[in-house]
Structure formats: C-alpha cells, structure tokens
Task: structure prediction
Amino acid sequence: MSGLNQVLCALTRIVKELVDRPLEVSVMATGNDFVIDVHPDDLGKIIGRRGATIRAIRVWVAACGGKLKQPLRVQLVGDRRSA
Result:
C-alpha cells in the first residue's frame, strides 16, 4: 500500500470516528488534495471549537505530506443533500 493510500485510509478512519453519521462520510484523494465530504449536521464535529479539529487534521496531513515529500492539503465539504 502506497504512502498516500495509507494517509487516505487513516484520515477516513479518523473522520468516521468523529461524526454521528459515519456511513455518510466520503474522503477522496484528488492529486495532492484530500476532500472530506460529510453530512451537514456533522460539519461542526469536524470543524471543532474555533476550528481546532480541522486545523489538527490539516496539520497531521501536512506532516504526512512532509514525510512523503509531497505537499498534501485537506478540503472540507458539507454534503448538500437534505437532512
């Protein structure tokens, strides 16, 4: 398993543990970006107080990118389906 796939699997697992609706979590890798898509009601859980949770996720992903010698970024998208 490549380093990027390992980061993707770990990130997916982390995000699914944080939300109330883990079955509606989607984490995709597009180039050097990871796109996290969650149910709108779970956005606050991923963002955290004052953005602390998403900031920690971004720092961790950036550190993984440093280890892999490629810049990695995280984008958070709220699922646009109705609740």
In short: The chain has three helices and three strands. The domain at 3-78 is CATH 3.30.70.2210 (Alpha-Beta Plaits).
